[in-house]
Structures are given as C-alpha cells and as structure tokens.
Amino acid sequence: MNKMLAAxxxxxxxAAAAQAQSYENSDARAKEIxxxxxxxxxxxxxxxxxxxxxxxxxxxxxxxxxxxxxxxxQPDDFERTVGVFKTPADVxxxxxxxxAHADRPDDQWLFLPALNxxxxxxxxxxxxxxxxxxxxxxxxxxxxxxxMEHHLVREETYKGRNYYVLKSTPASKYTSYSFIEIYIxxxxxxxxxxxxxxxxxxxxxxxxxQYRQFKKxxxxxxxxxxxxxxxxxxxxxxxxxxxxxxxxxxxxxLAPEKxxxxx
Amino acid sequence: xxxILQLLAxxxxxxxxxxxxxAPAPLRADSLGTPETEPAARPEQSAAAGRTRRLQSEWSGQxxxxxxxxxxxxxxxxxxxxxxxxxxxxxxxxTAAQAGLKLTVRPFVRxxxxxxxxxxxxxxxxxxxxxxxxxxxxxxxxSVAWGNMLGPSLVNILNQxxxxxxxxxxxxxxxxxxxxxxxxxxxxxxLYVAPGFRPKAFPGVRSRLFYxxxxxxxxxxxxxxxxxxALAARYTQRAGNFDLALSHFYGTxxxxxxxxxxxxxxxxxxxxTIHQTGLETQWIRGNLTTKAEFTYRADGKNYLSYxxxxxxxxxxxxxxxxDVLLAAEYLRDPWKKDNQYPFADMFFTAARLTLGGLxxxxxxxxxxxxxxxxxxxxNVEAKRHFAEHWQATLGWTSYVGPALVAxxxxxVIQYNSAVQLGLRRYW
Lengths: 263, 427
Description:
The structure holds 2 protein chains of 2 kinds. Chain A is α+β, with helices and mostly antiparallel strands. Chain A has 1 helix and 13 strands; from the N terminus they run αβββββββββββββ. Chain A has one domain (40-261): outer membrane lipoprotein receptor (LolB), chain A (Clam). Chain A has a 13-stranded antiparallel β-sheet with strand order 6-5-4-3-2-1-13-12-11-10-9-8-7, covered by helices on one side. Chain B has helices spanning 2-19, 48-51, 334-338; strands at 56-70, 82-96, 101-112, 120-132, 135-142, 175-183, 187-194, 222-223, 230-239, 242-252, 257-261, 266-271, 273-285, 288-299, 301-317, 322-332, 345-355, 361-370, 375-386, 390-399, 418-426. Chain B is globular. Residues 1-51 of chain B have low confidence and may be disordered. Helix content of chain B is 6%, strand content 51%. Chains A and B meet through strand 1, strand 2, strand 6, strand 11 and strand 12 of A and helix 2, strand 1, strand 2, strand 13 and strand 15 of B.
C-alpha cells in the first residue's frame, strides 16, 4: 500500500505540474495567436472607406446607416479614425474623432452640427450601442484585442474549418461581457466568429466577420460583419466598401480642432 | 395665411424630392446563418482608388414648424401670447478634398405668422476654406464657437447673439471673418480679422421673446468704432486629458451697454470697443469633466469674470443604452451686473437623458438660477426622432420662483412662461 502511494504521489504531482505548464503554454500561445491576428490586420498605414450598417429588427424591419471613415495608423499607438455620418438625415453632418489606444481607454470627440463645436466625450464606459446598432463602442476596431486577457481553451473543427478558440476577458470594468470566445482560423489567423457572453455568462451576441486581402495581399481588412444579438433577435450587418489607400489624409485633420472639416 | 401654407407645402415637397435618390439596396439577412467562413481572396480592387471623386457636393438641412403659447398675462400691454414659425436651415457643401478646398453655405430663415418682428433671414455660414498640411485659411461668413460650457459662455465672443431666437438656445448670427490657422498634433493657433460689426437686432416690444423692461431705440444706438475690424487670436493646447485655450479679442463688444433715455423712457444701446482676454480649461477623468472659463475685460473699468462647472456622464445605465448627463455651472460676470443684464451671477444646472436605440429620444432639463434672489427659470424639453427624418419636440419654459420687483433683471422673463411645440424634418 505504502509502496503504491509512494509511486502515486510523484505521478500525481508530475501530472499537476504538466497541467500547470500546459496552461502557461496555452496563455503564451494565445498571446502569440493574437499577435498574429494583429499583424495580419495592421500595416495599412491609412485608408478611406464607406461603412454601411443595416439594422435589422426582430420583426424584419430594417434601417440604414452610412458613415464615411478615414483611418490612419499610429505606429507608436494604434489608430485614429474620423467618422462622417451620411445617413439618416437627422444625424447627417455629425462627425466623430476616435483615438484608439493600444494600452489605455480610447479618446473621443463628437461634433454635432447643432452645437457647432467639438465636444470631448468623457466616457470610459464603452458598453453603449454604436449609432443604435447591435455593435457596442467596445466592439469597434481591433485595438480591443490589446485590452483583453486571452486564454487558449480548445481547438475545434467548426463548419469544416479548424479553429483556435480563445476565451478573452476585457480589462475594462465597464464591459458588458463576462468573457468573449474568439474563433481564430488556423489557416488564416483571422477571427471567423466571435461569441459575446453577458455578465450572467449567457450567450449574448454572435459576430461573423469576413475579411479580404488588400495592398498586394499584405493585409486583411473587414468587408462584412454580421452581428446578431441572440437575446433580442436583432442583427446589424455592416459592410465596408470602396477601400481607398491612395486618399491622402493630412495628420492635422485628426486633431480635435480640425476633424469637423472632413466630409 | 394661405400664402404661408403654400410656401410650407413647397418646402415640404422639396426635401421629399431630394430623398428619392438615396436608400441603397438592402443587404440580405438570410445569409446570416451560413457565414462565408472562407475569406474571399479576391485581388485588391484597383478601381477603389478612383472611387473617391475629386469634387463632391452635398445638400442637407432642416425645416421646422415651431409654435409657442405664453399662458401668463404679459408684462407689456398688447404683447402677443403666441408665435408660429416656419424655420428653414439648408446647408450646401462643396469639397475638393485632395486640393484641400471646401465651400460651405448655410442660410437661415424664420417666417413667423403671428410675431412679425421675429421674421428674419441670416447667412450663418458662407465661406471658403483652404487647407494645406497644418495650415488652414477660412474666408467668409462663419459661425465660430469658443469655449466648452454647456450653459452660457463668457469667452465665446466672435459671433453676435441672435436675439430673435429663444435666448435659452444660444443662437448666433453669422460673422464675416478671415482667419489663418496652424493646427498641430496637440496645439493650434488661429488668428482672426473680423470686419463688419453686426449690432443686435431685437424682437419688437410686442414679442414675448423681448425680455428688457423698456423698449429699445436701435435707431439711436451708437457704435464706438463702427468701421474698425475686430482682431482676435486663440491658442489651444492639449496635454493628455487636459485641454487649455487662451484667447484675446480686441474690437466692438457684441453686448451693448444700455443707456436709459429718461425723456423718452427708452433704452439706447451703446457698443463700445473692448479688450477681452479669455482662458479656458478642461480636464477629463473617467466620466467626469471639469471645466472653467475666465475673462479679463477692459471696458472703461477692468472686469474679471469666471464660469466654472462639472459634468458627469452615466453611460449605458443598466445596459439599456440610457445615457444621463448631469451638469452644474456657476457664472459670475460683474460687467453684466454693472449693465443690468439678467443672469450676471447665476447657476446653470442641467440633466440630459438620452435613450439610444434606433430612434433617439431625449429629455433635457435646464435650470438657470439667479444667485442673488435664488430665482429659477426652468426649461424642459423632450425630443423624439422618428421615421429617420423627423423630430418632434415638446418644451416648457417657466419662471418658477416668487414674484419679482420691477427692478429685477428677470422681471420681464417671469411673465413669459410658455409651452412650445416643434416638428422638424431633416434631409
């Protein structure tokens, strides 16, 4: 009996140690995977694009929103975006300036034609809806990936493709998610599906992004995103068209004193 | 009246016609269940670069029907107890973005069927803009707003106030300006020349928007240096969450000193040339904004005025896209006090509730309180956007304090409680 125990104890300890090491490795691997995703989707330098959102209600009724976007990469940080609202008419002419930071909450300025001056938004809470859609401010862009803790939880074959499944937790205390499952395609290192879980750990939203290669196939950028809120039955379909990498955006237009001059 | 109706119908049809061209083909929602997991590896769109047109023009704007009913007995005899207006504000923009050129045109028209003294037209904006790297030049009629306060601002001096609009809306007239700016990464400097001084145009004594205790003789008004352009400069600096602006203005004060004509029992506006130095600060931490404005004004005497406040945003309350903004500001302006203007020493408090979702609804409660007498003026406004292009508003403005003596600067305002209705169409 004692002999058996003597043999078992080290075995158990060894197994536990191996388990701990594999978890440690999995976190390192998750970090590596995210690094790969970010590398895949950055390096565009700058572009202009037309963003269209179709907001589909549970009863099938739908609404259109159009935003002209100008995005400029920030080598030491992340990216700066000017969004010019085109439709619907009641928000036409409104403009938003966003500084997506790699390591701290984003900065935002809003220009409303009625106010006729930019207003700096004091809001660390990015859980609110973007423009009435099912996309929250905290879901926008890829800088969010830098502000989450990622764990590689499993590898899975889903709809005929092989994925790494990451369980990611946003660092912000204001987030509306307990965690997010990100399905990263093993072949492309792009997210093929993102599942958002609410604070009660119930499935909240499912996002299916689609990417395409640009700039002589050196970079992937989103062309479509289907964000379905499974709790209220509403879906927001976003498409990005007319990517233009030749459009020159002077850095001064990305200053709060001047972004409202963009059209 | 029938002519107004005809005009109204014409204005209504115009935006509807302009609308017919938009609405892109809707995306199909049925593909949601079967996402295309294989990313389409099509080659880069070579045509994309050409899609950004060289010259772009765009029309937008709004047209509104506004009405108000003043339910208290008036201060002046024969004053109207209502107004009913048609307000149009179209906007046209022509851009040659890659050349850094832009033309902005924004006229403003108000036609009032009841209170004719409110009927007026103005050019809010008509200017050309040229931008090259960090340099920018704007020439023409512009609307420039300085300052960050939610309530009345001390530093905001370039544009004259539009007295024929509701004073709680802080509307301004267009101002001819030539400005040159250098906009850097975190700082900017802008120099202005403002030719053409625009004196205040007041509504008639029979209008309920008139809040002076005596009629104003604008035909007797004097302007110290009428033909001398005003000069101004503003420097802004941003350091992380801290914003700072320093400005100086030299020219005709937009607010006149009111001289009392004892013989005719009238007020005569006198516009004097002043120097005004302004300082604005804003500091953001989390959801809290702390801001302040200071002005040092030389107008015979030297006046130091200040305005300081806090703003806090409760965002996405309980996950229902309800934003609540609370603000409190305190303003003290000895110049206004010396010249018998209302709200020279006041608190401005506001609560704004915005419900996001598809069609934004907003409820704004503003309270302007005179500190000396603790007399509050309440303004409540509910707004609802609907059917993509429409906005309905219901408002109530009321003096809610005890009766005031005739010498109080708010003595007229206390009689002008009103219910307002508005219907706005955007295009």
